Backbone:
């Protein structure tokens, strides 16, 4: 009957009443359903006994919880007994014991919302800022300041280092490093605070100089065995305690190396990092961050920092090639390309250093070197193919630039260095074809400097790999195309440095210095290429076209300076031809015996040829000139000319006045006595003016001649004085006798 009445009651409910009443299962027992049956009535009456829906909800939950505890007494009497013994307050509660937190969870909106004024908003903002600043000041006040006495105490205690002491030192070092870049998070992570620069210097100096050796003693003891000398730090039994502190210390050292500007301090930090490489290898994330920073210093740092950063890179790559060599090679190559965008005499040594060091890193693993060389040489070939296919200015510029040229030089050096291993030998021919295609892309006179750079790269590749590459035809072609007898259109005193330019302007092509520099470069490149082939048994046949071309040039050229350089080169080449011809006449093997030919060439190279000896002497002089150009000095400074010291004009005027005082001082009483004239007398002043004019006209010996004339004049005046003539008599004598008028008488003949 109860079930039927429940069903009828449910049938009479509307949809809203049914949804508000909840979903009570029919299988529940009557005591369990009693509270649930009260719920619909409570839900239907929005204002219950408490006067508010929240009060009714609280009372319903409290009664429900109390019923659950009463049922717990029947279901689990042991647990109920345990609650009675240990937590009696949980069982004895009423509906009024609900916490105030439940009331705070429900917030009733007011009927009217008040709008705050601008002044109140400003006051609230100031109060919030004050609270934040007070919070920061509270955090800072909690940090312990580091003093010089503390650093000195740590330094003395570090001789017997303990894990706890190492933790304190690392925290202080982290706080010191955090001040260099304003790292607020790093400063808050440490419990120390460094405010004084003297404390910062003392802390960094102590950690860089002494801390690593003390840590090594702590990990492996005072006298490490031979087996533990090269063991990783992670093999120490204390590694588990010190691992996090060592990780923090290494991160701080890397951060310190990235923010230092003083070269000497940065060099000391890099040396410390080099000795701490085994610790970095145990933390791959920290090691990657370190390698990124070392690559940046390798590409942009000062000369000493570049070398130290490179040593760190090599040390890491030698220990873990598989993990770090590939990313390091890629990053170093990209850095090299970025640094080669512009070239100057001062930048050439840096570019050469990067080429050599990158070659050394590639030499650590020939397999990885082949992969990177193949990839980047192919990129160069793709750029060249696009330029040859498109025939546009933009595509030409993608090839005819410094980055492309220096990349060609780099891979020529890499192949020349690693070719004996045989792994990179298949890449010689593709690289040579890319360089030859670059020469033929725009074969005009404006790009002769670029052609010379390409030929120098081919010469380097041919000499170091022992591969014959025909370079002479591209050199002899320039001798035929340029008219060296043509008179220059304009003169220029500054020579053209072909080492730092890729193309010439139309104005440069008309200058005399262009032909002077071009002929000098052609002779230098011819000599460099031929000295690499000077030991070849086929040298006479190899240089025959060059000898004929040089002789033709001497017959046609009318410029003595050009003829002198070419004749000197021709004489050295012919001398080497005769030397090889005479030595190969005594051999007994044939041309087909390759082993005997190679042995003969090796012996000839070891003994030396006339051309190689001449080249070695010429190379020393040429390197000296290049160093002078890099340093910005003129070549004339090395000739020890006597230095001409010029006096200042003011000092010269004072000395002249002292020397010619008697000549220019006209107002003295002595001159009036001597010449018998007043200050306005005309004859005396005319004589002085006449003597001064003669002194100005005479450029070579004016001062001496003027002084002689003055001395003679003074001697004449002295004779008059000695004769006893007074001033009045001298004046009458100067005026002469009075003129007399006579009648003109004519003779009969007139």
Residues:
């Amino acid at each position: 009957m109860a079930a039927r009445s429940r069903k009828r009651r449910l049938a009479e409910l509307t949809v809203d009443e049914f949804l508000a009443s909840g979903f009570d299962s029919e299988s529940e027992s009557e005591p369990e359903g009693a509270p649930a049956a009260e719920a619909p009535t409570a839900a239907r009456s929005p204002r219950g006994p408490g006067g508010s829906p929240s009060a009714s909800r609280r009372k319903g939950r409290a009664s429900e919880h109390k019923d659950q505890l009463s049922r717990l007494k029947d279901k689990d009497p042991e647990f109920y007994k345990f609650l009675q013994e240990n937590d009696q307050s949980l069982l004895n509660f009423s509906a009024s014991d609900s916490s105030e937190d439940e009331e705070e969870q429900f917030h009733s909106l007011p009927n009217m919302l008040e709008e705050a004024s601008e002044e109140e908003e400003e006051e609230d903002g100031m109060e919030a800022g004050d609270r934040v600043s007070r919070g920061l000041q509270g955090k800072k006040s909690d940090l312990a300041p580091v003093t010089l006495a503390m650093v000195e105490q740590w330094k003395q205690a570090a001789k017997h280092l303990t894990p706890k002491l190492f933790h304190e030192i690392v925290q202080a070092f982290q706080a010191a490093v955090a001040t260099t870049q304003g790292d607020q998070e790093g400063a808050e992570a440490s419990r120390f605070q460094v405010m004084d620069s003297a404390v910062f210097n003392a802390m960094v100096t102590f950690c860089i100089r002494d801390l690593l050796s003390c840590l090594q003693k702590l990990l492996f003891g005072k006298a490490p065995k031979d087996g533990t000398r090269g063991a990783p730090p992670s093999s120490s039994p204390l590694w588990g305690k010190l691992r996090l502190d060592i990780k923090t210390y290494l991160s701080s050292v890397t951060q310190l190396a990235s923010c230092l500007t003083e070269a000497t301090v940065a060099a000391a930090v890099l040396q410390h990092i080099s000795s701490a490489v085994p610790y970095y290898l145990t933390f791959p994330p920290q090691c990657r961050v370190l390698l990124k920073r070392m690559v940046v210093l390798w590409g942009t740092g000062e000369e000493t920092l570049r070398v130290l950063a490179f040593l760190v890179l090599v040390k890491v790559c030698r220990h873990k090639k598989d993990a770090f060599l590939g990313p390091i090679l890629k990053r170093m190559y990209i850095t090299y390309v970025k640094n080669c965008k512009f070239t100057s005499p001062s930048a050439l040594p840096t570019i050469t250093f990067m080429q050599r060091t990158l070659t050394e890193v590639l030499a650590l693993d020939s397999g990885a070197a082949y992969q990177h060389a193949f990839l980047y040489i192919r990129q160069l070939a793709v750029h060249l193919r696009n330029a040859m296919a498109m025939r546009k200015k933009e595509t030409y510029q993608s090839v005819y630039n410094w980055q492309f040229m220096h990349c060609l030089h780099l891979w020529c050096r890499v192949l020349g260095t690693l070719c004996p291993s045989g792994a990179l030998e298949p890449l010689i021919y593709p690289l040579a074809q890319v360089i030859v295609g670059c020469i033929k892309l725009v074969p005009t006179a404006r790009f002769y400097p670029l052609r010379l750079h390409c030929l120098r790269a081919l010469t380097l590749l041919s000499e170091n790999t022992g591969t014959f590459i025909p370079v002479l035809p591209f050199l002899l072609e320039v001798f035929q195309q340029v008219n060296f007898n043509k008179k220059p259109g304009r003169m220029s005193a500054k020579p053209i440095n072909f080492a730092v330019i890729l193309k010439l302007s139309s104005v440069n092509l008309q200058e005399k210095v262009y032909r002077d520099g071009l002929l000098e470069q052609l002779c230098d490149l011819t000599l460099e290429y031929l000295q690499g082939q000077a030991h070849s048994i086929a040298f006479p046949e190899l240089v025959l076209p060059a000898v004929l071309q040089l002789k033709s040039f001497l017959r046609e050229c009318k410029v003595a300076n050009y003829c002198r350089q070419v004749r000197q080169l021709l004489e050295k080449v012919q001398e080497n031809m005769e030397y090889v011809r005479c030595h190969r006449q005594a051999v007994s093997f044939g041309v087909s015996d390759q082993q005997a030919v190679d042995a003969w060439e090796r012996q000839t190279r070891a003994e030396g040829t006339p051309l190689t000896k001449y080249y070695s002497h010429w190379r020393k002089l040429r390197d000296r000139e290049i160093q002078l150009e890099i340093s910005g000095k003129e070549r004339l400074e090395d000739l020890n000319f006597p230095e001409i010291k010029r006096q200042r004009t003011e000092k010269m005027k004072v000395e002249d006045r002292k020397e010619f005082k008697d000549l220019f001082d006209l107002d003295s009483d002595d001159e009036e006595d001597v010449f018998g004239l007043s200050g306005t007398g005309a004859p005396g002043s005319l004589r002085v003016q006449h003597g001064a004019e003669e002194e100005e006209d005479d450029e070579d010996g004016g001062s001496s001649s003027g002084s002689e004339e003055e001395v003679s004049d003074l001697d004449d005046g002295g004779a008059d004085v000695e004769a006893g003539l007074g001033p009045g008599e001298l004046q009458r004598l100067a005026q002469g006798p009075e003129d007399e008028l006579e009648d003109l008488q004519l003779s009969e003949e007139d």
In short: The mean pLDDT is 76.
